[in-house]
Amino acid sequence: MLAIVVGDFVSPTTIKGDNEVMTMSQVFHSRMKTIRKRGPQYLYCLVVVVPITLAYLVIRLIPMAYTVYISFFNWHLARPRKPFIGLQNYVSLLSDDLFLRAFKNTTLYAVVSVSITLILALALAIMLERPMRGKTDSLYKLLYFLPAIPTMVPVSVVWKWIYDPSYGLLNYFVGFFGIRPQGWLINPRLALWSIIAMSVWKNVGYYMVLFLVGLKDIPEQYYEAAEMDGCNKWQRFWAITVPLLRHMILFNLVMATMMAYNVFAPVYVMTTGEQGAAANPVRVLVFDMYENGFRYLKMGYASAEAVVLLVLVMALTIVQLRIFRINED
What is the tens place of the pLDDT at every residue in 99-131? Predict the structure, then answer.
């Protein structure tokens, strides 16, 4: 029985061995010895973790909390008085035609772009996962991944000129097939779909690489055993590839959905100026927040939109996680 002896008082503690007794002083010195021995490790953890935690707190959590706070106020940057209005900003969103249009456009953009991007990325990853003749698979991987390297702004500028109705490369190319030049970004019926096409082109290589990482972790023996049992390629895909790639599919789906609902740069860059369509046909949630917050200076209203977007993305993420968990069970 392990006990701590202080004067005539004996306090039992954890059982460590038969008839073993430690004094309080011995316990204290044992703890101090452990701390001195692991002190550099503890110090390293503090030096590495604390600055990152503080930076995340200052850059992320505090602004998020402040955004929620001012969403309950009539917060106008040009007015000194900012009265508390409760949920009025959120109620006003339900009758705001521009917000509802932005919500519809953002959802359409997210559903179509995420679906096409992930399906193409998975198809490309499966085709490039097996070595090709002449080791050209590395070249194709590089070519598909290159669009993911530059940021969205320069890519949007380049594609804005590609879509130019007068001397854009796309109209020059479709002219060979007898198609008349189109105002890809001017026509309200084509503008959003043109942005979706550009987004798919840019992001498909990034998710292709992630799918390749997941495919590399699937043992080849599973495919060989299924082939010996007479399974064709389609059956092997649904019985082996999809189940074992479930976690990577979930990760890509969650990340792609969050990025799609936060789309802003291509809409802002490609639809402003003479080469762009009117704002409403391609209006998205973040662009609507930008307009209300920095053009009309209605920060309280824009913050309410930001909170709605945050809740929406969190809800979609939870639904995706639950769906994949149910399928896994």
Answer: 999 999 999 999 999 999 999 999 999 988 876
Domains with residue ranges and CATH for the chain: 3-70 (no CATH), 88-328 (1.10.3720.10)
Count the alpha carbons within 13 Å of 163 in the hemisphere toward its beta carbon.
28
Model confidence over 272-299: pLDDT tens digits? 765 555 557 889 999 999 999 999 999 9
Residue 260's alpha-carbon distances to 78, 145, 309, in angstroms, are: 32, 19, 12
C-alpha–C-alpha distance, residues 271 and 256, integer Å: 22
Count CB atoms within 10 A of the CB of residue 98.
Answer: 15
| Amino acid present at 45 | C
pTM: 0.81
What the block records as the tokens of 174 is: 């479709």
Q: Which residues of 100-123 are buried (b: 16+ CB within 10 A; e: fewer)?
A: ebbbebbbebbebbbebbbebbbe
